[in-house]
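Inputs:
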Amino acid sequence: MYMGFPILSVITLTPVTFSLILFLFPEDKKKEIRLTALVAASITFALTIVAYFGYDMETAGYQFVEKYNWVESLGISYYVGVDGISLPMVLLTGMVIFTGVLISWGIDDRPREFFAFLFLLASGVFGVFVALDLFHLFFFYEIAVFPMYLLIAIWGWKVTREYAAMKLTLYLFIGSVLALVGMLAMYFVSGLGTFDMIALQEVQFSMQFQKLWFPFVFFGFAVLAGIFPFHNWSPVGHVAAPTAVSMFHAGVLMKLGAFAALRVGVMLLPDGARFWLPLIVFLALTNVVYGAFVAMKQRDLKYVIGYSSVSHMGLVTLGVATLNPQGITGAGLQMFSHGVMTALFFACVGVVYDRAHTRDIPSLGGFAGKLPWVTVAFIIGGFVSMGMPGFSGFVAELPIMLGLWSAGTVSSEYFIAPYYTWIVMISVVAIAITASYILRVVQQVFFGKMPAEFEGHITHSSGKDKIAIVLLAAVLVLLGVFPGWMAPLISSGAESVMAVIGGI
Amino acid sequence: MGISNYQMSSVISLLPEVGLLVLAGVVLTMDVLLKDDRKHLIAVTTAVGSLLIILAALMYSQPSGDLIWGGMVRDDMLAFVFRLAFIFAGGITAMFSIGSKELAHRGDYYAIMLGAVIGMCFMASAADLIMLYLAIETTGIAGYLLAGYVRTDDRSAEAGLKYFLFGAATSAVMLYGFSLLYGLTGETNLGAIAPILASGTVSVSAICAIVVLILVGVGFKIAIVPFHFWAPDVYEGAPSPVTGFISTASKTAGFAVLLRVFIYGLAASEYWLPAMAGLAAVTMTFGNLVALAQTNIKRLLAYSSVAHAGYVLVAFVAYSELGVASAIFYLIAYVVTNLAAFGVVIVFAHTAGTDDIQQYAGMSRRSPYLALAMLVAFLSLAGMPPLAGFFAKFYVFAAAVKADMIWLAFVGVLNAIVGLYYYLVVLKVVYVSPAPDGVGSIDIPATCKIALVVLSLGIILIGTASSPWFNWAMKAAQDLF
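Outputs:
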């Protein structure tokens, strides 16, 4: 509740309510449908801003809490609240849905269904980020995943959409149902008869139980965060998805996986997390390095961004795996920063593709002349991605590196501790690789001479595209120059996570 | 819970069955009196009558938990919930029958269907082997007639005959099981049989033989592997409204018998529960894997319904109050969802004249709302939130984990993925593939439209507001333990 107003419920349910309202329109009223969608997205975004700045930093902890019985006999409740980790994610989702609707203005094939499914997806995402009940979390997690199938299969890139949509759906659902069995095991073994996560946090599950079930829960969700070797659905999905869905997918959905893996896996089974830490660190590092190298090799613009997402999400997982406050703060910042950045990248790529009808990097060129706004925005995104100081990427990656470094200095019974310094060095090298492929893309796509085939029919970007792009780029710079409006918040969230899991 | 004879309350508790009988009489009379162009009123009467019976039952026939009519019938919550579900399915089926040219105007068809519903009601409430067998046969014979109702269509005739041959054979085997049970215990009442079996005077091998024999009959009704062979052919050949009815109401009635006989009458035994767990796993896996290869929507739904029977069996072998409650909840959700799925199939065939999945291409452009109903129904079958099927599967897997049958829960959840795959493939055809040239919009008869709206809302409500339904199921489950 925020001043007596159930703000989190309203945020969660506004998009899905509008997706029902959209179906009341006859399908040929496309203009009205788009406007209604924009209204819905604006309301949602405005509410997330209100919630973000209404959060009381002094008291910290879970705020705007609402709790209602859902299925009382099983201890299932509708239970929502946000802390310093989840609130920035809520803001991010609001931003992506708003910009996503702007970017999707040109969709002409069944826009009613498109926006309806997109909003259903958005409600699912909000529901997961605000969930304080395991069932609630899982319920919305599934809602967040299945509309992706329809969105990609119907409106995606014709060449790979059916394959990509099905691959994505199967990967994510296999992950989530394995996690489900783990969550049910926690529910019954705890003996509390409740799915309340805050109550379950207090339970000391036996070491044996944690060792057994942690991988199911953690990796089940981490599939959605694109963890190696279960990352393959992600770039394929990005490439096939329509622009707004790519923005959602990379910008928000992958964070959903990381968030759920942290919230359910690490926070409810901390001993399991410590036991499996070496494997997680190894896989996350593989993400970072492998993702960067593969991105370097791609010719398709969307594949470059897709693999760079795999690489950057590895940094998020590494941050979580430090199990110290700096690292987790960095992971939280990286989730937000990377979310905005990939949304921006995909928005830019979408604008370019809509005009050039190709994403093949070598056959593009010289777009800076026609699309100056997009060019600048893409370069800003590039700087974020390389971790340049003054941009949000630096603000996010620095604490992760610091966290890793300090994790390497504490003496611990876990044999992996001394190797953290090496991990820092390897990840820094991977960030340097990022610079190489991002600069190559900027140079080949936006500068140089425009190929003759594009001359004359490349139009300027629309006003709506510009609003979306400027908003996303501005946030990246703002966070880079002045991190004070977010870093302390996430830091407070990280402290409360640490209070639950203890150190390494 | 004593045995009370011939009181007013015993009559009132049979109000639904009496109402159905009266309704069947009304329907037959209308068939004689009405002119041909007004015979669609018969379907409407059947549906409205079913609704009134449900309302009357809710108001006046709340279960007492007693054995009534000389111990023939147990008037408990379990029976009550299932009976309402059957009457609901009957009413909805009548509304969908308007969409079938062969059935729409035939009064005797609706009367036979109501007869089947009466039989199912007694299957759910029978507490005595004799009554149970009568109920099963009433349902069965009505079902054979319905499946073969369209005499001019060879496939329908074949379906009727096949259904009859399988049904008669399995029911004979089951009857042998019943007779063994009577011979060894000297009782026909399930409530009296249970303590005798528990006392250990009957040998384990005899009990196992009885279990196997009865399972043949029940397994046929619920179409689990290896008693499912009839299902795809009968489902495909029978008129679609009948298929919808058999795959939902008749299957659920079979499960009512399974729960009643095996939990109330035979009580659990460490000997046959693991075997049933194996059957559940095989049924789910087989149904889903074979469904992958289907090109006819009715055959696809047939195999998927085999798989769904497997999920319910998972809840059954969890053998706890939670397990039975989740089985009942699953069946309620399944009845509503699968009826919606068949409703879409009926409406589509009404215009397009085909059940071939490829012909569904572009349906979302031909009729966005029919496509939406199909989306809701199929995603619920696949177990997606916020729909009924999600909660149903969640409860079932929860019951399995609680019973410490983790392996079965894993088999179940992975099967759910396979299921998701083929349901999505159908939805892909509906939403993604372009419509063939020269096809127009799809005409949805008014009664079918109402029925689809009711079912779609039902699917969403049983899902999001799942608590009251689950509490009902929980109460029903407590009657068995």
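Remarks. The radius of gyration of chain B is 21 Å. The beta strands of chain B are 3-4, 67-68, 73-74.
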